Amino acid sequence: MSGHSKWSQIKRKKGANDAKRGKLFTKIGREITVAAQGGGGNPEDNSSLRLAISKARQANMPRDNIERAIERATSAAAADSFDEVRYEGYGPGGAALLIETLTDNRNRTVSEVRSTLTKAGGNMAEAGSVAWNFNQQGIISVDMESDDDPDAIGLQAIDAGAEDVVDEDGLLEVITVPRETDKVRQTLEDAGVHVSAAEVQWRAGSMVELDESKARSLLKLIDSLEDLDDVQHVASNADIPEAAFAEVET
Predict the structure, then answer these.
(1) Alpha-helical segments (H) within the chain
(2) What is the pTM of this model?
(3) What are the tens digits of pLDDT across the range 13-37?
(4) Could you tell me the residue range of the domain that residue 181 belongs to?
(5) Nearest-CA neighbor of 89 among 115, 67, 71, 56?
(6) Same domain, 147 and 241
């Protein structure tokens, strides 16, 4: 679990600090649009939309952007239509990759994903060859303040429906089944807990250990994949050495 937690923490820092904020807003906007298309544009009646809007707010996405994304899904003249497509592949060291996309052109997306994998020494995999090792989980990240009691927050989360709580280096991760993610997030926020991120992710069961060289190459590949316009998330079963993570943080 530690590798999962560390990588999630780094990705949030990168999203907040690097020059990719505009691209991040575009990706979150697509998530909002798809959520609204699937369950309607009223957040009170659509937990997936509430979760996507929460993610947008945590990324400091302007309110106008959020409203436009909902309008694209609910307008009578709406032209945007995105398909949720998942690709499977392998990266350096044989690490498995599960690549989630939202696309309006499948041919373009699969071509870009395949090209990015190939350039990094990876390859596409057949459907099902990777996905069997991954399960969807709701992940709620809490950045602990100095006076926070992790045990008390953990109990609040469990009482609200969480399945597990992991405390590592000042980062508390609350694990839920996907359908309970928004409810647990809202309960914690109502109690004054600082939730820094809440989303449904694919997480691997069995992990593969990589040496530092392979780990660095894999992290670069994941960054390249997530830089593609149509790629929303990339999950891996790689157990990354701490030293490789340290290079990504700097």
Answers:
(1) 2-17, 21-39, 47-58, 63-74, 106-119, 150-160, 181-190, 212-226, 242-249
(2) 0.87
(3) 555 554 567 888 999 999 999 999 8
(4) 133-204
(5) 115
(6) no
